[in-house]
Each structure stands twice: as structure tokens, then as C-alpha cells.
Amino acid sequence: MPFELHPAETSDIPDIVAVHQASWVNDPIIGRLMPDVDPKVKYDYDIDFYEKKFSFKDLTGTGDHSPFPHSRPKSFSKSSFDVVASKLVAFSKWKYPYTLTPEQQAEKEKLDLGRSYPPGTNEELYKQFFDRLDALKKKYFDEEKDYLSPPYQRKGLGTMLIREGLAAADRDNVRTYIEASPMGLGLYKKHGWKEVDDIIIDMRPHGGTGIASEKCMIREPGAGMA
How far apart are CA 191 and CA 67, in angstroms? Predict the structure, then answer.
């Protein structure tokens, strides 16, 4: 089955949201963040989220203001298309941190970057998970994330998306940081990431079962590449 990589565009946002939601539906933590939110409300909420991501990327530490010597594409992600079906089936987000200028910081503060929760959100779990996530990002940050539509998992798309981003990171001699779900852990280890921390949450008070975890991982430049 042939696939092609393309820069993600705003016109891809509905497909990006569909892949995003399908990727996380069975995750023991993410899948419990909005258990009672109406599907139409959640879809509109995620559409708004990604529209803001595209609109505000130049003021959130990504985009064309990277301090690294190689130029970066304007779009913040790469998407993978099924050539036969002519549809987006996976995408990858990469963030290159940089320091905002005083003018950019002032403009950012004028924007509404906050997110209110729709009715039915598990706000206690949301806060517990993202407070821990934010703390780890501040500690380790560069970031990469992959999202694959379930029917297209285990077909090499994760590797396709990862390799391009890692090649850019290696050219710039920078480390990369990710949070890995148990399902993606093996793939990331194969490409050189090593566990450095974790997020552990008792899911029983939140309608789940047992203890759920995500691994925080760091990859040094050149690690794991053939």
C-alpha cells in the first residue's frame, strides 16, 4: 500500500481531528479525559484546538523562528496520505523551541490561548495529567508526537513520520523528547529514545481500571538510526 508525506495544511484539520480521536480512543488515560462529552461537542472542540494550533504556531515556540541553522517548514506537522484512498491517515507534530521576542510575547498575551473544558470532561483527571505533562516538558523539552489512524497502524507509517523529523534533529545536533504510550514504546525505543521519567496515574477514581502510565523519553542525536 503506497503512502506519501506532505506538509499538513489547514484544509487537513478535519482529517487530523478524525485521526487524533481514533488514535486515543482506547488509551487508558487520554481515553478517559472526556468520557461523557457529546461526540459532536468534542469534535467541534478539537477542530477549534487544531485551528488555534495552526493560527498561533508562530507565537508558541514553533514555526519559522527556530534558532537552528536549517530552515523549517511553515506547517508544524507532516501528514501521511494513502495514495490509493487519497486520504490523510496519519500525522506527526514536531516542536522546535525558541525564545519569543518581547513584541511576540506581548502579542501572545493578547490572544486567547486558554482552553475551557466542555461539559462532561473529567476535569480532575485532566488537571492531574496535564500538570504532570507540563512539568516534564519544562524539564526536558523538545517534542515529537505521532498519530496514526488505527486501520493504518503496524504498516510502517510511524517509522516514515519519525525518520524525517529525526534526520532534521540530527542535522541540528539536538535531543528530542516524547511521551510514549505503552503501544508506541517499542517503536520509539527502536529509533533510539530511552526512558527518563514517567507519568503514573491511578485510574480507578476516574472510571478506569488499575494503574496507567506513559513513559517520558529522550533521544540523543544519532541514536538508533541505521
Answer: 25
